[in-house]
Write a structure and sequence with these properties.
about 180 residues, Jelly Rolls, 4-stranded antiparallel sheet, about 10% helix, about 50% strand, globular
Length: about 180
């Protein structure tokens, strides 16, 4: 049995909107072939946790915490998601734009240690850091997967970590499932 998916982004007009649930695997496959970005979702987990299961956060183009342009390791694109105790899978996607010139670097999901009241340890990336290089006025969507093994239920402080130049994240989405899909 396959899990339903959230539409996180799509490049052109369709009858479906960002945030809608796609339950049919064939429809999900067709949307992906047309350039849509989808993340798996666990409806039961969403119902049980209320704040868990899925989040998408957007940032405007001005200087925000989603700019990665120092050329040194830095964290940004902060968000939070409720998780259950034990192992869960975190699926993420982020759209990266150039801030001028050639954008280059690599990003990965991370737990933000500065958020003291939230869970901030237990993350293991299953994907290598997502590398990119592209010209000005272009963008790329990066996707990855991680596991989170928390000692208790709670909010996990998430973001992206990487070494980049001339890059900003316009949106990031994270979904949480209890099975590896």
């Amino acid at each position: 049995m396959s899990l339903p998916h959230y539409i996180v982004a799509h490049p052109g007009p369709t009858k479906l909107e960002v945030g809608e649930v796609v339950k049919e695997p064939r429809v999900a496959q067709t949307l992906r072939a047309r350039g849509a970005v989808l993340l798996p979702m666990d409806l039961e987990l969403m119902h049980d946790l209320r704040l868990g299961g899925f989040i998408r956060r957007d940032w405007c183009v001005n200087r925000s915490p989603a700019w990665f342009d120092r050329g040194a390791g830095q964290g940004g694109a902060p968000t939070a998601l409720q998780v259950r105790a034990g192992a869960s899978y975190l699926h993420w996607a982020a759209e990266v734009h150039s801030t001028g010139g050639v954008a280059a670097g690599h990003l990965r999901l991370w737990c933000d240690p500065s958020e003291g009241l939230m869970l901030n340890s237990g993350l293991t990336n299953l994907s290598p850091p997502m590398s990119f290089t592209f010209e000005d006025d272009d963008s790329i969507v990066l996707q990855g997967k991680a596991t989170f093994n928390g000692a208790r239920d709670g909010l996990v402080a998430l973001g992206l970590w990487g070494v980049c130049s001339n890059a900003r994240v316009s949106w990031m989405a994270v979904s949480n499932t209890e099975s590896d899909v």
